[in-house]
């Protein structure tokens, strides 16, 4: 199984990216192959439906999505929604690239929780015909501190993240097996 992770902040040292790196380590500990796309390092030009001659960075993102059996999207919450960098990346995706894949939504907010950004992500996933994981991860002010290894310092947060990721992995495995059996 291969999972594609997209860190949707263009901010260096973003808490949503730290959280995604912790998730990456958790997946690798389970011997799951991971492709990590960090939009702060792999910047994309502004999407335009008039230009389908994509920049090489866009090709890398689309290839990582196509190669993954599942997708984890992480975003900071800005003004009650997802980051512009992540929205721009998602605008390049067509439904065929996400159809039938499990998607886990992750948010980091400056306030108590990032529920609005998670709702927006799930709406986008539905429009791309992806399958939203029934779990999601939201961290907010006070719970977004991380140790030197990238792990959340709060034990309850670590447990919630692991539980959500394990639920995502289980659903991804089931959907991948079902798709393989149908072919």
Automatic annotation (TrEMBL):
GO (cellular component) term, any one: cytosol
Family: Belongs to the azoreductase type 2 family.
Domain of life: Bacteria
Molecular function GO labels: FMN binding; oxidoreductase activity
Name of this chain's protein: NAD(P)H-dependent oxidoreductase
NADPH-dependent FMN reductase-like domain residues: 1-141
InterPro entries in the cross-refs: Flavoprotein-like_sf, FMN_Rdtase-like_dom, NAD(P)H-dep_reductase
SUPFAM superfamilies on file: Flavoproteins (SSF52218)
């Amino acid at each position: 199984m291969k999972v594609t992770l997209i860190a949707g902040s263009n901010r260096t040292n973003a808490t949503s990216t730290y959280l995604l790196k912790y998730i990456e380590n958790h997946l690798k500990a389970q011997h799951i192959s991971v492709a990590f796309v960090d939009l702060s390092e792999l910047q994309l030009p502004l999407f335009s439906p008039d230009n389908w001659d994509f920049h090489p960075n866009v090709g890398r993102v689309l290839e990582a999505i196509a190669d993954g059996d599942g997708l984890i999207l992480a975003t900071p919450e800005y003004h009650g929604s997802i980051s512009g960098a992540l929205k721009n990346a998602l605008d390049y995706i067509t439904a065929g690239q996400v159809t039938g894949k499990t998607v886990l939504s992750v948010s980091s907010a400056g306030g108590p929780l990032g529920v609005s950004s998670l709702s927006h992500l799930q709406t986008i996933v539905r429009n791309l015909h992806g399958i939203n994981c029934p779990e999601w991860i939201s961290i907010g002010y006070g719970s977004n501190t991380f140790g030197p290894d990238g792990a959340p310092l709060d034990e309850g947060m670590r447990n919630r993240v692991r539980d959500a990721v394990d639920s995502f992995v289980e659903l991804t495995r089931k959907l991948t097996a079902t798709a393989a059996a149908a072919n």
